[in-house]
Design brief:
0% strand; Tc1-like transposase DDE domain-containing protein; mainly alpha
Length: 49
């Protein structure tokens, strides 16, 4: 049946989805790293205000 062919039921597709999410968490270049560090610093800066 077509329900058995659903990507939502395929454990490999679920694994690929999780892997892609994990890879995209990390910055890929210096600009992304700098932006990430800046955004991460916002809570500290707003505490001082």
């Amino acid at each position: 049946t077509s329900e058995c062919q659903s990507p939502d039921l395929n454990p490999i597709e679920m694994l690929w989805h999780d892997l892609k999410k994990a890879v995209h968490i990390y910055p890929h270049n210096l600009t992304e790293l700098e932006c990430s560090m800046l955004v991460d610093s916002y809570p500290r800066h707003t505490q001082w205000i």
